[in-house]
Amino acid sequence: MSDIANVEVSNFNLKMSQVELNRTNLQVDEVNKRIGKPGGAEAGLDQDAFFKLLVTQLSNQDPMNPMEDREFISQMAQFSSVNYMKNISHEMQNFIRSSESSLAFSLLGNHVEAVDLVTQLPISGEVSSVFFEGGRPFLRVGNKTVSVDDVSAVHKISEN
Question: String of b and e for 97-134 (b: at least 16 CB within 10 Å)?
């Protein structure tokens, strides 16, 4: 049985060829470029891409000189950090949308003052409705549309 094992090992290439090394380096460089760009995680480095890269590295490494565990742990930590920041960013965007929506609905029935961004003229009146366009809330004031961001003053209409 040891003769068969020796034959199999002797026929197994334990070193990466230059082509394999170049291919792995190109893949690593591409991932590093994606991470370095704004929105790097969203630009294409997701969990599947990370694991694909990791499998490529592991399958092309020299079994007699494997990747050090510190490198592997560092890569996992970096991926975890990027993934965590991506999740935080997503949750913050949800929070901001929710806050804008709450603000818009709280303005219903109140008197607001704003500036029309197109004409630069003041708009003043009661908020009669709230609607959403592109995920952002807008107010209907008279026959004008006002972004929540453009409101400069709010006056409570007294119920007398």
Answer: eeebbebbeebeeeebbbeeeeeeeebebbbeebeeee
